[in-house]
User: What shape does this take?
Amino acid sequence: METDLNSQDRKDLDKFIKFFALKTVQVIVQARLGEKICTRSSSSPTGSDWFNLAIKDIPEVTHEAKKALAGQLPAVGRSMCVEISLKTSEGDSMELEIWCLEMNEKCDKEIKVSYTVYNRLSLLLKSLLAITRVTPAYRLSRKQGHEYVILYRIYFGEVQLSGLGEGFQTVRVGTVGTPVGTITLSCAYRINLAFMSTRQFERTPPIMGIIIDHFVDRPYPSSSPMHPCNYRTAGEDTGVIYPSVEDSQEVCTTSFSTSPPSQCVFTVTKAHFQTPTPVVTDTLRVPMAGLAFSHQPAALGVGSADLAYPVVFAAGLNATHPHQLMVPGKEGGVPLAPNQPVHGTQADQERLATCTPSDRTHCAATPSSSEDTETVSNSSEGRASPHDVLETIFVRKVGAFVNKPINQVTLTSLDIPFAMFAPKNLELEDTDPMVNPPDSPETESPLQGSLHSDGSSGGSSGNTHDDFVMIDFKPAFSKDDILPMDLGTFYREFQNPPQLSSLSIDIGAQSMAEDLDSLPEKLAVHEKNVREFDAFVETLQ
Amino acid sequence: MNCRSEVLEVSVEGRQVEEAMLAVLHTVLLHRSTGKFHYKKEGTYSIGTVGTQDVDCDFIDFTYVRVSSEELDRALRKVVGEFKDALRNSGGDGLGQMSLEFYQKKKSRWPFSDECIPWEVWTVKVHVVALATEQERQICREKVGEKLCEKIINIVEVMNRHEYLPKMPTQSEVDNVFDTGLRDVQPYLY
Assistant: This one.
């Protein structure tokens, strides 16, 4: 058994290290794209997957890595580094991580190159896959989009850790000994993200409306060394044609032998290496179909910023279809399509969808008793629209005149304050739930004439308000990152709770006498609370 | 040969038990799975490709990587589900543990049956806590996420030591070392 490396082994080792470096960069950059990665296992060896791992090759990234390496390999004093940094839309940037692939002098002459080294490199890549999801920058990169993007930079040479701030931590992914040295893969990551977190929350989102601001131009010229962690499809490349990377098409067809190592067969052949073109799957665009939204396939980190709002907008509109939203979001097996919206929006959708059922139950509970009227009004946090205010007045005043002969319909609806809010139908089938005019105002319009002019004007303008389409998808004071639509959804849900069976006009089985009998009690309760109602109304005006 | 033993401890809320266990077990199995072996003549074999998949946890702020194999995922989920039920039904202090043992089969002469010799055991100890408010749960989500990050780093450290691994088997012996029952990947026998 030879202890010195023969030329074949040396060549193989160099090749392994080169492709290991390229795959390392791919794994790191793909982990910072901001979305979930999914690749398929294949039981039959295709011969094109280095280290027996299905790691896609993004051509741009390969190109950058090769440019940085410039034909060299990591060696002592010459490390390959991938720097991950964050850049805000205002232009501030901060280094988050430095991943280093280093080589030291400690050699392991005894090790078998084409077998043990290869397998250990494969194991190291798996460890890298796991570790890239574990550092703090991962969660940041999943939320990139509107306010910041994640960039990567590859350089070769001395490791520069100064940009990571004080107290950075290091995690060692692993080491592999080879006859020419020991390969070490590690990551140094920033701890002090305080700068970022305060800046994030300083920005107050717009209260009304959505600014769909397409980033048509890439803010980063291609000549700059920093690159956004985004992915353009082959067709989107702005004329930059990467040299048809013949050498990256080398295929590792490795056969392993179970017999003694001397019989190990190892062949490396040049074969056509298919870079899988990304498939744009529209699973997440279905709910957005209702919007006039032009597809921005290119920039994941930058352009998809604008996806954040529209998707949520659509999600709000389509609150009737939580399942539709949930399924794509939760699906783990969707093939990698970098043109999907960022995870932040997916998370929003999922959260939105999961919020809806819980909000429904919450809202359904609130109008259940008249005593809860205070709760209901308070829960709107004093931001009820004029629509609500007028409705409130109207109802109260009508209640004061209840001893007039009025039809049952009116009675039933008078039983409960805020009956205006009870919609005719239970589901939010309409795209604009707030436009849903409740039955009661129309039926009570004959009554209006007999009431004060305030009431009538309140009633009529209440009807007018029914026609308003209030699109407020960014309620004030809502934070971007934590359940952005929670408050708005809750507010809408509370506006249109499912109709209680007691409110249903179909319950004509209830005799009028019963209703009349129970009225005085209810009146007494309401009159007791008159002051509070008044005070509340004052605050709304 | 001694069996390597690693113990990991986590404190989680009830809903997080499954995901925490799956995260740990999948990470271990990611490192302990290869592609399917295809034996050719002359005693050589080639290896299939292992795909990977990111999995977001619903109840923990955490994402883990697992092997892209639905069969393996199903098998693990089944076992973890049983563990979770057992933990819930046992009442008591909410402590439980589950072990993932990698073993090798050794053919024995008749009349002795085959031996299963473990070479690596991963034990996960779970401590279930009950939380009252939503705020506590939110904090727990983040904390458990951070803890799991540490556990993954621990696992990777152990894997990196490159200690004993069974020798690559010949075709006839592959079932003694690997679980060849799955369609797309081949983990070590566990």
About this structure: Chain B has a mean pLDDT of 83. Residues 3 and 113 of chain B are 21 Å apart (CA to CA). Chain B touches chain A through 46 residues (CB under 8 Å). Chain B has one domain: 4-187.
